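Predict the structure of UPF0125 protein FHG55_23620.
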Amino acid sequence: MVEPVIEIEVVYAAVDRQILRTLSVPEGTTVRETVLKSGIGDEFPELDLSECPLGIFGKVIADPQVRLIQAGDRIEIYRPLLADPKEVRRLRAAKAAEAKARNQ
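Done. Here is the predicted structure for UPF0125 protein FHG55_23620.
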């Protein structure tokens, strides 16, 4: 018997380029398995696809080793943050306050 397949997309955006792959995978494949099968790891060897955070349509998946994909899903591979957003806001606010003090 032929195993049913579903079509999904896997996307990754590096700093300098983006990639989107459309895949047909067997029904019952997990999110993590799909990403590993996508071949994106070959194009971005610095990525650890077995550990990196994943999401579907902008929502982080808590357990991608268990979550099964559904037809039409767009799996997103997230890269680590280069800076803590709270720290960046704090520095920006301090810089703005300093500029304001100089202009008075």
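The mean pLDDT is 90.
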